[in-house]
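Annotated sample (chain length 203).
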Amino acid sequence: MKDFVIIGHKALTTGDFSLNDLPGAAGRMDILCRCINSALFLSHGMRRDVNIHLVLLGEPDPGKIVRFNGEQLRYLSPDERSSGSLIKKALEKDATEFESQSTPGVWIRRGGLEKLLAEFTANNRRIYYLHEGGGDVRSTSVLPDDAVFILGDHMGVTEEEEVAIKTIASGTLSIGPLSLHSDHCIIIILNELDRIGQSRTEA
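Output written by the structure step:
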């Protein structure tokens, strides 16, 4: 599985928000919804080998992780309201330290970035921080199929978060010289992995 971690600094941590105002009242939940769709949807199908973890740090109860698992996911359509609805249903559950499933393929628990990083490290996963100041992803000699990619939202990442990520990351990768939206970054990274996978198959 490939894993994407998106840090939502303002995203609400309660299901009490309107699907008609994802950018405003929901704390830029629209960004996270676009990331979900970019990570999971193909033109005529879905990527079943992707997890996307939303680290929700907004009010009123910060520190929740919502995970979308492409292998088990159901009831998701390629629009922001659909993914927003599944997030909303997850947040309506009582989150504990252990994952609980809200709908098929969508899980919620308490936790934050450091908890995820510790779990990935314990499982010997290669973690990459996406930042325009990193090394060119196309010059990377090895990019494993089960890589973990960390991205910020419209606010980027805090200095504290960046230190935590860089302390354990295998590297910092750039997909180009300009800063792009997180959902666009995900599409480009997946395209690179698709091309690498095709080259390995043909070799």
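Annotation: The longest helix spans residues 182-202.
Annotation: Residues 66 and 87 are 7 Å apart (CA to CA).
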